[in-house]
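[SOLVED] Predicted holo structure with flavin-adenine dinucleotide

Edit: marking solved, answer below. Original request kept for reference. I posted the sequence and ligand SMILES and asked for the 3D complex as structure tokens.
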Amino acid sequence: MPSVASIPPPVSPADPTGLAFWHEQLSPAEKTFLRQVAVFAATEVAPHGEAWEKQEELPREIFTKAGRLGLLGMTAPRRLGGRGFSYVTYALAVREIARHQAALAIDIAAHNALGCGHLLAAGTPAQHRRVMPKLLRGTWLAAWALTEPEAGSDSGGVQTMATEIGRGRWELTGFKRYITLGRMADVLVVIAVTGQTPEGRKEISAFVVNRAEIQPLRKVPTCGLRASDTAEFRLTKANAELLGERGHGQAAALGCLDKGRIGVAAASLGLARAALDAAVKHVLHRRQFGKRLADFQALQFMLADCEVELRAAEALVLQAAILATRGVRHTLESSVAKLYASEAASRICNHALQIHGGYGYTRDIPVERYWRDARLSEIGEGSSEVQRIIISRALLKSAEGALASAR
Ligand SMILES: Cc1cc2nc3c(=O)[nH]c(=O)nc-3n(C[C@H](O)[C@H](O)[C@H](O)COP(=O)(O)OP(=O)(O)OC[C@H]3O[C@@H](n4cnc5c(N)ncnc54)[C@H](O)[C@@H]3O)c2cc1C
């Protein structure tokens, strides 16, 4: 591995905003960590990115290496084996990995913010002692299972049933689909129905389930992020342990998504930067009509629009990450960042593909992969439509509040 001092900061050379914009938020330890992440991404991830894409899987070993570096416990407390870093560092690390291999970045983000995030937020000290050190060091992986055939955008549609069989012991029966790390995870957080609320609604709770209790069905073939283990599994009287208070599972899940969306947005930034870097390089080399593509104003303007959108997306992700680090509510900011960054990344990857012409549409270069990978961010962890619902609700609620107090 090259020495940490000899490598550039963890941003693309074509990303002049990287240092000034983000690094003021970082401690010396975080800067060192991000330089190590850049070395890891360049030496351990980038050379294998295409092979993993073709094989449609990531080797377990890469998670072990990521764990050794601290990538699997970035924001978790140090007393449990985490690194105790800020969400800004978390976002930058996910962005850097996504520049090289978005499937790995999304897996790392889901493990950190959803699986570990839920366990950290709702687990008892005994549960923490039992699972967190292994998860945070990467000996184990965590998945987070909310989605089912009837529960996608509507998390209240969960049908997996939980039956209490003893004090704190439960059995789960149901079917989960589209779960990141669903077959690879050693520990799963599973959302299930535990009864009815006094108002007649479903009472939804969260559970910790060991891998041995689930029946993996298949890896789902996806458009992009092909190396990620997007899986379906069944639960048949699976032994489970309540995670957090009974009936608090849905609220806790939504809280985890506030953090999760920062990771999805950060992966979008990495993909968009990789695509834009490739487009800039291409226009400088390719010649048509006796000129470089870079000399055509139509393409210059396309590149300019991409750079502006990417910088705007970075600012929104930073805003959400700072609020998350401060521990203040950031539901709105995470939604805004995820909505804008994911849609901007899709537009940027699409422009980058267009700028490459026929070459962009081939699988000889990774631009088409960036384009396919970026698309997930507009769907996963709440689609763009769901983000618009969250944002408009917040806007209208605050305006209604202001009107009511003016009366
Ligand atoms: C690669 C991948 C990884 C994933 N990883 C995980 C994971 O780790 N854990 C997990 O629990 N889930 C995971 N998911 C599931 C993901 O979060 C859901 O796919 C997503 O929330 C959308 O749900 P759905 O697919 O059921 O779509 P649906 O809810 O059926 O939505 C279909 C369309 O209808 C729109 N729509 C729905 N409701 C409304 C409304 N009220 N107003 C307007 N439009 C609406 C949606 O925006 C969307 O365009 C993953 C999915 C993928 C593809």
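OP edit: Residues 249-285 form the longest helix (37 residues). Thanks to everyone who chimed in.
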